[in-house]
Amino acid sequence: MTLTKQLKEIMQGWGNSFLDKLNMLPTIIKEEAEERSKICSTCPIRTDNTCDPNKKGISAKGRAFYGCGCYIDKKVLCMDCDCPGEYWKAFDVNKIK
Ligand code: SF4
Predict the structure, then answer these.
(1) Confidence at residue 52, expressed as pLDDT on a 0 to 100 scale
(2) How far, in Å, from the CA of 87 to the mean position of ligand 1?
(3) For the chain, what are the domain ranges?
C-alpha cells in the first residue's frame, strides 16, 4: 500500500469518527461499521482496540497474515479499508442509492 493511500484511509476513519460524534454519520456507514465491529470483537488478532501487528493469523481465505496496527474503532469507519484477514471488505457506499 502506498503512503498516500494509507494516509487517505486513516483520514477517512478519523473523519467518520468525528462525524459520528456529531451524529452526522450516514446510517449506511454506521451500520457497516457496526457489522465490522462485531467481527473484530471476536477476532484473535485483536488486542484491546488494536488490530495487533505482532499477531499472526490465518485469513478467511487461508492465507497467513499479520494485523495491520490500526485502531479498530477508527478502521471500521473507513469504508475504503479492507480487513487484513479478509474477514470484511471495503464497502462502496455509492452502490447503495
Ligand atoms: S480488522 Fe480484521 S484482522 Fe483486524 S481485528 Fe478486525 S477482523 Fe481481526
Answers:
(1) 98
(2) 7
(3) 3-81
